[in-house]
Structure prediction request, 602 residues.
Amino acid sequence: MAVVYQKSKGLTDKETHYCPGCTHGIIHKLVAEVLEELGVLGDTIGVAPVGCSVLAYDYFNCDMHEASHGRAPAVATGIKRVLPDKVVFTYQGDGDLASIGTAEIVHVAHRGEKITTIFVNNAIYGMTGGQMAPTTLIGQRATTAPLGRTVEHSGMPLRVSEMLATIDGAAFVERVAVDTPANIRKAKKAIKEAFQCQLDGKGFSIVEVLSTCPTNWGMTPIDALKWLNDNLIPYYPMGNFRRPGEVK
Amino acid sequence: MAKVLMKGNEAIGAAAIKAGCKYFFGYPITPQNELPEYMSKEMPKVGGVFLQAESEVAAINMVYGAAGAGARVMTSSSSPGIALKQEGITYIAGAELPCVIVNIVRGGPGLGGIQPAQSDYNQVTRGGGNGDYKLLVYAPANLQEMVDLMQEAFDAADYYRNPVMMVGDGMIGQMMEPIEFKESVSRFELPLKDWATTGTKGQRKPNIINSLALDPAELEKHNIHLQEKYSAMKENEVKYEAYNLENAEVVIVAYGTTSRIVRNAIIDLKEQGINVGLIRPITLWPFPEKAFDLIPSDCKAVLSVEMSMGQMIDDIKIAVNGRYPVHFYGRSGGMIPTPEGVMNKVKELVGGAK
Prediction:
């Protein structure tokens, strides 16, 4: 019998700790498949963040380095400068990347560091129990914004991809979502293009993946996917912001 | 090899490159700027990499990544910058990676000043960051000693898989002295870095660099393992110099450039009939506790002389363990103790000039 589907060699057999309905599993799978399809799994070093995906080092079947909160791009820089021929990626959430790690993500892009960042944006701090993130939407409730985020108190949510797309060293910037099978396919395509950008030595590449957090959003997994579609995508439009060769 | 005249910060860079350091991640801060500047010029010549990071925090995390990838790597900074690096240093210690960190100490607290100080003693010997960890800390008194210790610093870091700190007060960084770059043979048998994240090549299980252990029993086990390593360092890595301890009425404890000022005071005091000894810690951690057993039993007092408000004095009291009264003399904020100041304090302790 022909095998029509099997688990990627890019993932270990370790059972993940993610909540039911969390989309980290899908995103892990996409990254793993891309690394396998590009034939670079044995030449890849991944950098895990602090946050829900802190244990990603147990799930990706390649060499992994666990960074401190927000510093994954700096750690990845150190690795890449020592091993310029290897593939280096960071996997970071929105608390990690868009809050405590803004300096590191801006400057990894500014230097045009030849690494790839998978930025999982679910508009909330997941691991610590649902606190407000810079990406939390106006009106969205969080444990540190019990009445919902307001502009007056916390400003408008930060659009990371748009910001990074203004930096010359960021060669590839795209925002995708994993709420529908069609969007998941588009997400994989973007992730592959981002890693290809690194392999071609074009500069820094990042894919922002709009993701869900049913647990801390207080929704069923299906409602969470719908909420993503109805609320996150309108504020965080999907699409490519930058490709190698483009002059903006 | 012939002697060359070099500025301290540049000599540190030259010694590090000679010791096989290939990667340097830094950030500007006075009074250590000549070191990254030197590295930016010299690293490319040896096929290495110099990179100016966006912050001290980023620089130490670049070191964390590079060390994890198996490189000989170094960073440098000065006191407030080292405070920022503490986040990365505790991760590096927790994940058991080797690196060398240079701290050219300036006065504090806060932004403090840019003149020489030794007020980072606690910051460098008490861990500095969170958790139970230690750094091997060298505090040379002159540039030749600094250069001689650099090879050992990198070797010890690799051998113990632990960050090593080289501490110089601002004077060590800024002064010029003649230096001889000697050939040295490592006293360590260095293990292969088979733990490094260099890509599996599909031929081994993934290597993971990590300092997280959610299971308390596992974390305690890790801490016990680290402690065993620190015990081995205490056993094997203590360095100090004992000078003129025989018949000493007073024993001064001083390190770094302060010890050179104290030495002048000791010579002058001897001419005045007062016999004073010196214990000079070369490793601040592990602290040379056993050196205090060499103090003559009729010694009247032990005196800590520091360019701080008194930090090493705590370790001295632990080492003295009640055997002698312990006193303090220090200047701070970038003010430098004078031989006269030290002599006056000693005379006060022995009850005036003889």
Observations:
- The two ends of chain A are 50 Å apart (CA to CA).
- Residues 33 and 244 of chain A are 23 Å apart (CA to CA).
